Amino acid sequence: MNRINKGIVTLSFDCEAKWGMADLSLNWTKELTDKNLVEVYEYILEILKKHNIPSTFAFVGAMTETKDDFLAKTKPLMNGPNHKKWLKPIYSQLTESDEGWFFPNLINLCKKYHMHEIASHGYTHIPFSSLTDEEVTEEMKLIKDWSLRNELNCKTLIFPRNDISFSEKLNRYDIQLYRNLPKLIDTKYLPKYVNTFLEELNIFKKSEELNFDKLCIPGGVFINWKYGPRKIIPKTISNIRYKNIINDAIKRNRVAHFWTHPHNFITAPDSKIIFERLCQEIQKKVESNELEIYRQVDFI
Known about the structure:
- The chain is α/β, with parallel strands linked by helices.
- It has one domain: Glycoside hydrolase/deacetylase (TIM Barrel).
- It is 37% helix and 12% strand.
- The protein contains 9 helices and 9 strands.
- The chain has helices at residues 34-50, 67-74, 81-96, 106-111, 133-149, 192-200, 235-252, 264-267, 271-287, and strands spanning 7-15, 56-59, 117-120, 156-157, 177-179, 216-217, 221-222, 255-260, 291-293.
- Strands 1, 2, 3, 7, 8 and 9 form a 6-stranded parallel sheet that branches. The chain has a 3-stranded parallel sheet with strand order 4-5-6, with no helix packed on it.
- α7 (235-252) links the parallel β7 and β8 (255-260).
- The termini are close together.
């Protein structure tokens, strides 16, 4: 893993569309139409181009297939109990509509910009901790095949649901780095969603140190999704928080990693304002030679 001599900023995107919540019934997933999803990727890519920010787009492999190819490639997975449990409701939903599920042109759209890394976010987006060793092997084989067919030379992974399991198997399939778990406030006796909310208010959040002995990069900070309770958090608070993280990375030669899901800009359009201000701040610091931009793969 490369040593760093300057503050680093990284942007990564968990590209999953409806695959991310395939096992849950949530009203907002109805907004994830083919049209809306393609438009939001176009929007993100144009904003990144405007501010000259190369980033990491980690795709669920199945999301970039055609429906027929997905069904053919995953049929053998139904022999494993855990894949079967995960895939069965997906198959059921696909009998009604495949809206928001399959986008085989998105990889080429990202490639067209000649600056971004395309990484893996799993093949079916099943959390790895729910799999057996044999089932993880099947999932990793599909990721490797996906990488080869799309000429990606995929080297990094973002675990589905940030569920880090079986990381020791990654090197066998040419995955050299993964994104670590975010470091969140953990106030005892409070529910997770309360801690998550409090995390968004922490304007004194620091950047993270790069651990050169591990095969992972810092888990970073989730760009505020202004949906549900989070929407009451002023945008100013979020942007002060991000500026402080960036300035801390500059001061101490550490890493400021920001991540989100592209579809969050569909379900909460105000999140775009936060994202654009963050990109402006990154560009300003890079142009003043205070900060470097790394994609995940650039840490190798």
